[in-house]
Amino acid sequence: MRTQSSATESPAIAVSTPAGPPSGTRDHPPADAPASASADAPAGPSAGGPQASGLGTVLAGLGVVAFSLTFPATAWGLEGFGPWSLVAVRSVLAALIAGGCLLALRVPLPARRHTAGLAVVAAGVVVGFPLLTTLALRTSTTAHAAVVVGLLPLTTASLSALRIGTRPSRTFWAAALAGAAAVVAFTVQQSGGALTTADLYLFGALLVCAAGYTEGGRLARVMPGWQVIGWALVFCLPLTVPGAALALAREPVHLTAHGVAGLLWVAAGSQFLGLVVWYRGMALIGVPKASQLQLGQPLLTLVWSVLLLGEHLTPAAPLTAAAVLVCIAVTQRARG
Q: Residue 152: which domain range?
């Protein structure tokens, strides 16, 4: 295989290529590249300066907006599909989109040393999080499900520190904890504070998604982020295709406008395109700082819940939004 240096566009590394899928990119460093360019290099943000940092923040923010629509779109999808059908079909459709991009650009298979990391991404982001949150949304409102998203930034930053060795400052951690506390307090108050079986699904989803984000960020340092999620989706096809066939045969399907629209968004928007810009943004500004942008995701989800699902917000929403925005500003300015 011909080798050449690659750009990244995902969680924990630096990149200077365009935000779209780069053609002909390889996942290996040049033959004469030092060992530090390998997958075991430090996982800090790119050294592209303020301009790269600003672009990374914008891209990661776009990812957050895409993810904020996931729960409302899933609720729509459940109007027409069973939970197992929705999860399997969304993964298959996303894999077809990703596979088409990989094939069109003639991207070679990733190196065998990346197989374990891609498996973690697949288990956490492609299968685990969608399945567990979909099961939770059968009985939980989107407001209550937003609890898991409120805790996801802190969990991702913690796993990143353990897995990749990033060491954010104390100011960063203080702001992150304060933001997480504000989001959790708000969303728990929204749901009445009752713990149900759905909470077990949500907290499980929290852990597997944080693991997938962290490992995806590490891999995005040696291959473009869109290829990380693309290969994870494609490698899941032997599981998701028969799973979709079995689920569709056993669960009733009622094709409605909401059901189809929800399915298409969680497949194309949440499962692929959102992760493309998210991983690219994380590559530019680092896993910890990008993850803290997700503190605003539960509040965006609640806005979409009002607009798309007719749910109602309490007067606490503006106060929580202001508190979260302050915490985000602090984490983005904190050293490390």
A: 53-333
